[in-house]
């Protein structure tokens, strides 16, 4: 289906009759409003750390716009790829119920070619909470292209706290100018909403860097939605002299607890309520600093924004608020993670309380221990593995191959325990049982913190500890109020266990959120198929599906819509991304 570029509109909720033209291409969910977005994704010039460089912007914005919708709304995003390379956008934490066709990863979608546009169309079915989107191909997320997704409660569902005075989204993450072709190493800094640090230290922070300022009113309470959209660095987040009341993470309301700081790992999202209860003698620091590193060496790798009261009497000055003093206490961060629990009495997307789903009483039908190790050289290239297999995406997405009954695209034999012998490159998928209950143990035998994510689902984080997981480790599981989320940290030399109900048909990505590990092959897909021949558990392939690989012959041509200046200005940034990718695999 040839998709013509459309005029840009702001997001708007439309009644069903007003979007009759869209019904031809959008699956119909009767009575639920539509939100329509028109995005131009291109390289733009920005100077997040004071030096001009090319970043990926959306409609000229870096970070991109926030998608603000409500439970069960239909979201239609028309994406023009104005980059000079293929593009996919994935929706981190949006479950795409019955609709893995819209997931935006290489296991389900062919990339949008340069100069083409493609329309994502999905429903945020039975979800609430704070999420984000980002480009999923290659190393593009390291160049930007990310933005927020807010899914509000319907009016008929009570929120377990008073309505805040304002809603603030903060994207934090490590940033490295990749144009010099060096290996990852230490990042150049930490950004907040695409901006560098406030000049809290004249030695560490050069003059002339633009920084983020959050404007607030005294006595008011604000909701902060904080997302770690970085490459590979865990960050400790804190607001000087202010408590942060944790209320939600990745679609689940949590037991409400105050934190003075919280570790936020790559790919994770949290919501806090923060009350402006200080005397405003000056502005206050908002800080995101690197964790699990040599903090004296990494002192310059600190993101600093400003919290500015409307009655503030002066600029922030003096030292930053201290990070956790736990260099010799490796249990501090893990205990903090364990303290995040599910609010059993709160409703969420549905009227019944979250805790009415008693996950601890369900029998497990499948168990997978997914072990990662430090990267290894396989066939002359540096690769990362799970269970000894480094995933290599086939040219034809497995979900598309299934639709056309192609053989030989992938194998359905991913091992439930680590393979013995030398690691290998493969295209092996996990054979998930529809309506089964799967236990996954992530065993991190690397020396770096990892975060793992699962598309299509929210899973229950039931346990984590240092050492090697054993069958006896189940005795430590939290079977009552483990939080449901989509991304979980796994500490180096430790394990994390999750439980997930496989009730969403499709092929779903399980990946390392750390961008270097993911790019080097640390991912797998879970294939969930309903054995009954029915059209009620999965939506049909969309009319505008893109085709590639062995199915390229089905693809209709599109007239490119390039802005000629875009690809030319992007050359420097793209070459830097390419050099970095070559270095990662050891062939540059």
Structure description:
It is a single chain. This protein has 588 residues and is mainly beta. It has helices at residues 20-23, 331-338, 398-403, 515-519, 564-585, and strands at 13-14, 34-46, 53-58, 67-70, 74-81, 89-92, 117-123, 129-135, 147-152, 166-175, 189-192, 213-216, 221-228, 235-239, 244-249, 252-259, 262-264, 269-275, 284-290, 302-309, 366-372, 376-378, 381-383, 389-391, 424-426, 430-433, 437-444, 450-454, 459-466, 484-485, 487-490, 494-501, 506-512, 523-529. Strand 22 and strand 23 (381-383) form a beta hairpin. The longest helix is centred in the last third of the chain and has 22 residues, at 564-585. The model is unreliable at 1-28 and 564-575 (pLDDT under 50).
Percent range for β-strand residues: 25-35%
- Structural class, from secondary structure content? mainly beta
Broad shape: globular
N- to C-terminal distance: 39 Å
Mean pLDDT: 90
Strand element count: 34
Rounded to an integer, what's the Rg over CA atoms? 23 Å
- Stretches with pLDDT under 50, minimum 5 residues: 1-28, 564-575
User: Roughly what percent helix?
Assistant: under 10%
How would a crystallographer describe the biggest sheet? Answer: 6 strands, mixed
What's the arrangement of strands in the largest beta sheet?
Answer: 11-10-13-18-15-16
Helical stretch count? 5
Protein name: Multicopper oxidase
Domain Plastocyanin-like: 44-154, 181-312, 396-532
Organism: Musa troglodytarum
Cofactor: Cu cation
